[in-house]
Amino acid sequence: MITCTRRLEWDAMHRIPRHESKCAAFHGHRYAAEISCHAPALDDRGRVIDFGVVKERVGGWIDQHWDHTAILMEGDPDPAIMALAASNAAHGRPVYWMPVPPTAENIAAELAAIAERLLSGSGVTVVSVRLWETPNGSAEWSRDRGVDG
Fold first, then answer.
1. Does the CA dihedral 53-96-132-68 come out positive or negative?
2. What is the maximum alpha-carbon separation in the chain?
3. Which of 37, 51, 74, 148 would be a feasible disulfide site paired with 124, CB 3.0-4.6 Å?
4. Cα–chain center distance at 109
5. 68 assigned to active site
6. Closest by CA position to 14, among listed 136, 142, 134
7. CA distance 35 to 112
8. Mean predicted confidence (pLDDT) in 119-128
9. Is 133 labeled as catalytic in the residue annotation?
């Protein structure tokens, strides 16, 4: 199988409700995601997909929804949540609400679903998303290797 991978980076804050350590506090990361795609055959230029298509579609979505904002859990009980959301909105950066804690694992899975939707119709299948939360810590979502598309 031939895949191609596009790396995308952005800055965002989050917190993990009920975390047993310092990640329970609001904090930020320089996130990086590696999105790997597969196609049944290379195109007439020898590519799985043009890297620029992934950058435009998925990177554009990240810029709009995740860059320089907060990725938070719906129903987070922290009393500062609503003030933070209001402050971000006032600065034109809406909070991205997830139904689950915004861990690296859950953000990787969320980005995989988003990338699949944004790249639908391009002839590729998203086979993995590796999300780097720190330079030495990442989580990976991957498609069952026995399933194509």
1. positive
2. 55
3. 37
4. 8
5. yes
6. 134
7. 8
8. 95
9. yes
Cα 29 to Cα 9: distance, rounded to the nearest angstrom:
10
Q: Is 91 a catalytic residue?
A: no
pLDDT in tens, 5-64: 999 999 999 999 999 999 999 999 999 999 999 999 999 999 999 999 999 999 999 999
Which residue, chain included where needed, has tokens 């939707």? 117
> Which of the residues 29, 37, 110, 133 is marked catalytic?
133
Q: Judging by beta carbons within 10 Å of its beta carbon (0-12, 13-18, 19+), is residue 41 exposed, middle or buried?
A: exposed
Which domains does the chain show, CATH number per domain? 3-142 (3.30.479.10)
C-alpha distance from residue 90 to each of 5, 26, 93, 148 (Å): 36, 19, 8, 43
Strands 125-134 and 27-38: antiparallel
Quote the tokens at residue 61: 């979505």
Asked whether the CA dihedral 16, 21, 23, 25 is positive or negative, the reply is positive
CA torsion, ordered 16, 65, 62, 79, to nearest 10 deg: -10
Active-site position among 65, 68, 105, 140: 68
Determine which one of 23, 34, 105, 140 is catalytic.
23
What's the CA gap between 115 and 62, in Å, rounded?
10
